[in-house]
Amino acid sequence: MSTTPPAKTTAPTSGQHDSRPVKIACRNVWKIFGRGADEYLRAYANPGHDDLTNAGFVGAVRAASIEVRRGEIFVIMGLSGSGKSTLVRCLSRLIEPTSGEVLFDGHDLLKATERELIDIRRHKMGMVFQHFALLPHLTVLGNVAFPLEIQGVGRAAREQRAREIIELVGLKGRELYFPRQLSGGQQQRVGIARSLAVEPELWFLDEPFSALDPLIRREMQDEFMRLQNVLHKTIVFITHDFDEAIRLADHIAIMKDGEIIQIGTPEELVMQPATDYVREFTREVHQAKVVTARALMRPTSTGASHAGRVPANARVHSFAADIVGADAPFAVTSDDGTVLGEVCREDVIGVLAGRRARS
Amino acid sequence: MTAATTNPETAPSPTAWRLAWFAALALSVGLYLLADRLPWARPYPKDWQVPFIGWIGAAAQWSIAVFFDFTRAISAVLRAPIEFSISALGRGFAIDNGETTISLTPLSWVGIIAAVTIVCHRYGGARLALLGGLCFLFIAVTGQWESAMRTLALIVNCVPLGIVGGLFLGIVGYKWPRLNRAVIVPAMDLGQAVPAFAYLVPMLMLFGNNPVSAMLATLIYATPPMVRNTTLALSLVEDEIKDFGHMVGCTRRQHLWRIMVPSARQQLMVGVNQVINAALNMVIVASMIGAGGLGYDVLLALRSLKVGAAIEAGMAMVALAIVLDRLSQAMAAHNPAMLVPGRAFWARHPHFLAAGAVLAITSLLSPLLPALSTVPETMTVTAAPLLDSFVRAVVIASYDIIDAIKVFFQVYALKPFRNFLLTLPWPIVLGLVSMAGWRLGGLRLALLVAGLTLFCMVTGLWEKSVWTIYLVGISTIISCLIGVPLGVWSARNETANRVLTVVVDMLQTFPLFVYLIPAVMLLGVGDVAAMLGIVLYALTPAIRYTNEGIRQVPAALVEAAVAAGCTRGQILWRVQFPLALPVIMLGINQVVMFALAMDIIAAMIGTRDLGQEIFKALSKADPGLGIVAGLAVAAIGMVVDRLLRAWSENVRRRYGLA
Prior knowledge:
The complex is a heterodimer of chains A (359) and B (658).
Chain A: E1 22-33, H1 37-43, H2 49-54, E2 58-69, E3 73-78, H3 84-91, E4 99-104, E5 107-108, H4 114-124, E6 125-128, H5 140-151, H6 155-168, H7 184-196, E7 202-206, H8 214-231, E8 234-239, H9 242-248, E9 251-256, E10 259-264, H10 266-271, H11 276-282, H12 293-296, E11 308-311, H13 316-325, E12 330-333, E13 339-343, H14 345-352
Parallel strand pairs in A: 3-8, 3-9, 6-7, 7-8, 11-12
Antiparallel strand pairs in A: 1-2, 1-4, 4-5, 9-10, 12-13
Chain B: H1 2-5, H2 14-34, H3 52-91, E1 93-97, E2 100-104, H4 109-141, H5 145-175, H6 177-193, H7 196-207, H8 211-236, H9 239-247, H10 252-263, H11 265-285, H12 294-303, H13 307-333, H14 345-348, H15 350-365, H16 370-373, H17 384-397, H18 399-423, H19 426-458, H20 462-492, H21 494-509, H22 516-523, H23 527-552, H24 555-563, H25 568-601, H26 610-620, H27 623-654
Antiparallel strand pairs in B: 1-2
Helix pairs in contact in B: 2-19, 3-5, 3-7, 3-27, 4-13, 4-15, 5-6, 5-8, 5-11, 6-8, 7-8, 7-26, 7-27, 8-11, 9-10, 11-13, 12-13, 13-17, 13-22, 18-20, 19-27, 20-21, 20-23, 20-25, 21-23, 22-23, 23-25, 24-25, 25-27, 26-27
């Protein structure tokens, strides 16, 4: 018995991002482990998880297709063994996919020669690892400067650049420490600094905060968002933590048993879970943290006064306290400030009360 | 989990196995009783032998004739750096200038001691500095400086070659796992399983009686641990670090040298330490083919039963071994918290500068001050005569007891066991070994162990092999009877653990030769003396592995047992011991390998087994006999090794630990 009529008749889509070019995409990527996987995949077009298991294979990634647009944070979420790490390693070609296409800036990465691949990785990609993967024999400075050193950048130039980034991640003064002297959070800051040293266009983060304590994780997530607001990288972020995913993501792909079962904005996943499996994850998620003003927006009633303004992509929890205390609706504005519609107090209260805003 | 151990389609069920074992035992007993009527059963018939010894001897003679110039050229090239370091460290230079001979003094002994002390201080603080300084001073004061420096010179030449060669082979093995499994690992196994004495003969013939053959023989023995550790170290590098290397766009070469090798440093240093220890051990054994040095002193002293001199040279060996081992360990463990800023090498390593300066100054002064160049005679003391009379006094005083023990062992342990083995018809041995192989590892293992056993038989060395099996077998049993309880004790008692760890570490650094000294001292020559030497040496792995095995049992399991109300005894026998058994079995495996190695050395004090054959081959320069006897020793070792490993694996898999 929802009192809130649907604000929009169509489901929210990622339409507002369409203008941005696709940075990296994969189409129908398969990764099957086991001898003779190639032939098997050619013989059976679309084997299921159980088919593969019965044939003695491990279907780590099955028919995965994603598109990541420039400047967005694309999160791949799944529990351990779901294939998310394998998928990201297919995207970076650390693992050779069994079949499929990986398009980086529109070029097929799988057709790149070893030399081209080295070049792309040196200048356009950066990666952060779950267990930091710092080189034990180098200092913080040496680690951060390492990617530049590999490229042959001179000592003075690379160390200057490394010092800048070390300062950016808040480790100034620790340049000459060895990694083992640092806490987990500090080590991951080094990992992040190192991956940024070459100013990559595409940034892979493989469960970067999973090995950290909850409080530190939270702090690092904030730090990460602060960095992203400055840097605007295209990001592929892996996590097994759904809360982390909805906190950071523009888009989330949920994986299970090697298969992507749903791709959408956090809001879409929470409001319209594709399967019971996704619903299971979203059940405990507070809607106010994912529902945006756009989703609650109604057409502006003529002559109404507005008590405030919120951007269309603001999430409810960010303005809930203000609007609940106000006596008039808030105007919903686009990026350039034009008023798109309005959002009412009742709808916000409905979201806060946990009512599903839409069926 | 049990399903994985035996394949139900090819292997009989447990009941069938029990029946098969019963039948085999019955058959064996029958054959044993009937052996007198079956002339082919005992001993192994001469007509069925294959003249491997002759063939290999001929092949060796042929290749020596063909490659003689080539090998002597290598010998000449390698000789230069070795002779140079021998001269520099202790002997001094004598440059022949036509009519006159210009002699130069070696590096000053005072300078060397000071430099060692400074370097020790850098890596191990005051304690290691004290140890290093005192050990080297001890060598100087007991008048063994030149011998010790000769030994050290060979090590200084061997170790870098062993490290570089081992690193290279290990990298090849890591990059091409198939090649590794098919060629490198078996070759390494063989290099370590064949007793070092056995390849002294061909080395001697190819390269001559000089330090070069000694060095090459040492390399064969000392490189395998580096190869193994390199392959292991590289495979232990975390996947994420490898991925990182690829993601920053390393070329293959950069990936290997900038990512893999430095990340594997810790484990590689374990290999370096093992190379140093193995090199020291082998340089001493190789004293028989021209290495000279401390090993030769011990050898001479033992041959003429001068126990006092042997003890002195042995102690110098131990001193050298301890310093090298502890220093390389300290270097491996050296992990600075922060990099000291500053770029120049000398500025970052003032200790090297200091050590170099002391060495240079003292050496430059030594032509003026002879006391600096060679240890002055007035400074040296020898305790050898004193030790001799002391030992004589002890032996005379306790002769009755020692003799009683000796006779007791002879009559009640060694002789019955030996007679039993010697009268055992060979088909029984072959059959039981093959069956054990089949049970533990299937047909492949059965064929392997049967083939190796058969090799010992068809070469005509079966009787000698049985002598080896007897001496090694009884020493293994005694070592385990002493070592396993000590290991259990040290696993359950921290004080015992601390003391035993120190003792075991110490014993492991002793060169093999050293163990013969107390044996000869107390028991003279013969099987009982050999057994004592073997037990002393082979004891350490039994203690170590038992201790480690029990300590590796998950604490949660022990807590669960405590919570269930087990007594201490029950915890040990019901929980810890069964779970530690696979590790303990590996320890026993090591005991056997140690015992085999020592058994060959013990040939020097009069045994009648394969070791003696090798020894004979060495003195007769008979490469065929030497190599075949060496391979027979390796075959025995490999049979035991493969069977015990397979057994340990099976148990681990059954417990779900693998």
